[in-house]
Amino acid sequence: MIPSNDLHWLDVINADRKTISNLESLPPSTFKHSPKRTTLPSLARSQSGLRQILLASNHESSNDAPPEAPPGPGGTRGECPKTPIAPFVLIPPALEEGNQAIGSIAYHNVDNVEPSIWFYLPYTAQDRAVREGVFKLQDGKGREDLMILRFTPNNPTPTFARIRLDSELINSEQWQAETTYRWSLRLNCEAEDGDITPVLIKGRIRTTAISPEVKSRLNAATTLEQRSQIYQQEELWYDWVQTLAEQGQESSSWSLFLESRFPGFENLAILQNTPISHEPITNSPLE
Question: pTM score, two decimals?
Answer without folding.
Answer: 0.74
